[in-house]
Amino acid sequence: MHHKERRGKIKQYIPRSLKYEDSKQVQHFSRSCDHCAHPTMIRSVFVCLILTAAAFWAGTLVNVRGTPILSKVVLENNPDTHEFNNIGITGYRLLDFFERKAFANSALDNSDNVNVSRYYDEFMRYLAGHVTESQKETTCFPEGSIISKLTRDVNVITNVHSHNDYWRNLPMFEALCYGIASIEADVWLVNNNSELAVGHNRAFLNPLERSLNSLYTGPLLNMLNEVNCHQNERDHKYGVFYNSPETTLYLYIDFKSEDSKSTYELLINNYLKALIDMGYMTFLDIESREIVWNPVTIILTGDYPTDVRVLDGNNDDGIFHTGQRFVFVDAPLHQLKDEHASLSIVASASLSQLLEDCTSSEVTLDGLSPEELHCIKPFVEKAHSMKLKTRIWGVPTWPNKLKMRLWDQQANDLMIDFLNTDDLFEVSQVF
Fold first, then answer.
1. How many domains does the chain have?
2. 46, 59, 225, 298: most buried, per Cβ within 10 A?
3. What is the C-alpha to C-alpha distance for residues 18 and 25, in angstroms, rounded to an integer?
4. Whole-structure pTM over 0.85, yes or no?
């Protein structure tokens, strides 16, 4: 209800459901307490209380395309809730706040117990709040979720890919705060092929704090569990974007180790199975060849296994005998084959690979020449004819004027589906 202000006073709101006589009594009651014991007045107040209680009860129902679930009431002063730890800003403003405030005063004086980084650790503590394990199991309140804290009022950008996302100060979370719907993680087999560590170079891996589970799949599972409260497993699942819960998040897994088969088996069994079991993963129905979209879509890139039987767990009826395939391969945009139509949903190539057979392969400060654009377009058109989205990597990013020119040419001249970029803030201001 919007209240109109007149001469410094708020106009009184009288429930329409009250009788005219009762409404007059409410007005009279608000002016004076002399008649507060009047029977009619008591009846009016009682009716108001009933209406208020009913409105509050209705407001706690969480409708998630399934059976409505009555959530626990979040007490205003209860420190053991997400709401208590919600500072009320989201998106890139939240990132800016933590960059400026997270290490203020005595925070920098204490260097003990730093896991990933003080910035990352403080940010994660804020997102987690003080929710106890028992509350995680019984509370269904999406408004107090991590997704609400991160992406409420954030417009989703579906045509940008967060390049080298794992290198960012806040892997995955920074991209989500900008509304970026495509991210990537380089993974390495470590500890006798028992874990997948995330990093660009084997020499600087930290499996304890920077694993695929700690940076990506674990947080994803927690976030999705908070907003998918329905009891029917067949109900549509909500994703990681508050303003667009139907939008999938593309997660590229870049295989870096030579043993691609062991990497894949570990990925499926130890890192993705929980997401699969909860129905959060996009999959291909092997029999119908239909793609069923869900909150997370996995793309394999790098040195991934190319044998379809390996992808299906060496089963004719799919991984875990589900009749489904839960991963898609990153098809080579410059060397597409018919088989990629059933294995892939995205095709990628470097700019140099696409220009390899062109008469000109040197990008000037003016961007791609008309001849170069003409040379690249057939690759993109073929991918689109196969219903594959496209991405070009290895595109120059300096000087800034050239970067902006190439962004424009990719998006508008070549109709590339994902812009591969490191600068999330700048790209979020353009698209």
1. 2
2. 298
3. 10
4. no
